[in-house]
Structure formats: structure tokens, C-alpha cells
Design brief:
about 190 residues, alpha+beta, two-stranded antiparallel ribbon, about 25% helix
Length: about 190
């Protein structure tokens, strides 16, 4: 199982970034929200989904992560340099935590959900989850929890009841304003 940190301190592709972590306690969201703005990088990050190639990280892109308290998932919203959503990426995780430096982290359980602005939904890495179970990296209980969590989230998404699509847009505006991060300046 791999521990992933919201500040992506070891991401070698990135040469210059801004990072912020904001604790939130509001009626619709309790947990941490992080912002990661890319200023300079070695080369853009591209990904292909169903034959369509998309840029996920480039100069001016902003990645926002929601770490909802008590949940087994983390939602990353990737915005392009014009503030448009590129994708929502949902990592299913065993646990979440916070470093002594107040950097949120999660232990990744391999299973991921990608939702594109077109409404297209993809469940990824089921094979990695099965392989991790076969190799003893995770327990049968971890695997069952990951599958149950992904199933619950897919159901909410299919019913248009997954709040993080709207929250990501609202929180982006709110937090960029709160932090004083003007487009392209920070």
C-alpha cells in the first residue's frame, strides 16, 4: 500500500509550485482541502482515456484535493490554466492522516474512479486491487471495503448525488479568493 501526500513533495516533474492546506468545517464538508498550483514543470502530464488524450498537469493548472473526515476516499479536482475542470479523480483509501507539518495524506487502496466533465465515468485499477490482495499487500477486509466504497460512490455519481462536483467549483472560488491567489500570480 502506498502512502500519498497532498503536497506532492517528491513529484520531480514539478519545478515550481504553490501549496496550501485549509481545514474546513461547514455543513456540507468537514475535513481538509488542499490547493496545488503548478507554476513551472519539466513536461506536461498526459493521460489517455478511451482513445482521448488529455493534459492533466501543465503550467497554471490547479489541483484541489478534498480529504473528507471519516471517509475512505479522497477527491482530486484538476483544473486547467483557464479554471476549467479537466477531471475529478477519486482515490479509494484505507485511512487518511495528517503529518506533524499539517500535510494531509492517505494510504491508497489502488481502486480509483475518474469522472470527466462530459459525464463519462471510469472505474480504474480493479486488477491492481486484486493483485495487491493476491500478493498480501492488503487484507481481504481492505479489498472488500475498497470495493464497497467504490460501489457506493459510483451509485451516488450515477444518481447525481455526489456533492464533490459542485463543492470543487464552490471551494475553488472561495479558497482562491481567501488565499489571494490571483490567476497566474501565485
Amino acid at each position: 500500500m502506498k502512502r500519498k501526500f497532498s503536497d506532492r513533495a517528491n513529484w520531480r516533474r514539478i519545478l515550481k509550485k504553490s501549496y496550501a492546506c485549509i481545514p474546513m468545517d461547514e455543513p456540507h464538508f468537514r475535513g481538509f482541502v488542499t490547493l496545488y498550483r503548478i507554476h513551472e514543470l519539466r513536461d506536461p502530464l498526459w493521460k489517455e482515456y478511451n482513445g482521448r488524450r488529455m493534459c492533466l498537469a501543465d503550467r497554471g493548472y490547479l489541483w484541489m484535493q478534498h480529504f473528507p473526515r471519516g471517509e475512505h476516499f479522497v477527491v482530486t479536482t484538476m483544473f486547467d490554466d483557464k479554471g476549467q475542470v479537466v477531471q475529478w479523480y477519486i482515490d479509494i483509501c484505507k485511512i487518511q492522516g495528517l503529518t506533524d507539518q499539517q500535510v494531509p495524506w492517505f494510504d491508497d487502496l489502488f481502486l480509483d474512479i475518474v469522472v470527466l466533465p462530459t459525464g463519462e465515468k471510469l472505474l480504474l485499477d480493479e486488477d491492481e486491487l486484486e493483485e495487491a490482495l493476491d500478493e498480501g499487500q492488503i487484507t481481504p477486509r481492505d479489498s472488500a471495503m475498497a470495493q464497497k466504497t467504490a460501489g457506493r460512490l459510483m451509485e451516488l455519481i450515477n444518481q447525481n448525488k455526489f456533492p464533490y462536483f459542485d463543492l470543487s467549483l464552490t471551494h475553488r472560488r472561495l479558497l482562491l479568493d481567501k488565499l489571494g491567489w490571483e490567476k497566474g500570480l501565485v
